[in-house]
Amino acid sequence: MTTVATATNISPPSPVIERRPRSSSFGSTTPTYSQDVAKLKSACPNSTIVSVEKAIAIASTFDVLGSNSPLSRKISLTTENDWISFMKNLDAVEEEEEEGEKVSINLTKLLRNLYDTAYKMPPSPSTKHVRAASSGAVPNVGLPPMNK
Q: Where are the alpha helices (DSSP H) in 9-106?
């Protein structure tokens, strides 16, 4: 009589993997464009405002301007002049009178550019290399000159 031994392959229990705690850099939630658009639409349904003070008051409620946002490390919007120059650089100021009293500020454009500034990644070095190669220019890759 032949006995057959059955081999059971018992694997050791898998290690318990603990979840990494959620980043607290934004508080309880990460700002989202859709939440900020909802705030904008509730405060200003047509998305255009005619006062710099009102534009700043509405924009100041956007989550993307939170104290721990990546935007706070890239730009400073603490004074009215900071806001005005930032809005003019983005072309968010659509109309302006000579005396500066009447303006038309596109808050949707302002919000979109705030998110672009906060989260847009700079072009990678490889992209710069490809662009230079396609234009026929020789990119400076940081190599020393070849000796002949």
A: 33-43, 52-59, 71-74, 80-89
Please tell me the distance from the alpha carbon of residue 113 to that of residue 36, in angstroms, as a whole number. Answer: 12
**69-104: pLDDT as tens digits:** 788 788 888 888 998 888 888 777 777 665 655 678
CB 90 within 8 A of CB 110: yes
The C-alpha R_g of the chain, in whole angstroms, comes to 27
Rounded Cα distance, 1 and 4, in Å: 10
pTM: 0.60
Query: Domain boundaries in the chain?
Result: 33-120
pLDDT in tens, 18-61: 665 555 554 556 778 889 999 999 998 888 888 888 888 998 88
Which residues, 6 or more positions from 132, have their beta carbon under 8 angstroms from its beta carbon? 138, 139
Phi, psi at 89, each rounded to 5°: -65, -30
Q: What is the DSSP letter of 14?
A: P
How many other C-beta atoms are found inside a 10 Å radius of the C-beta of residue 38? 11
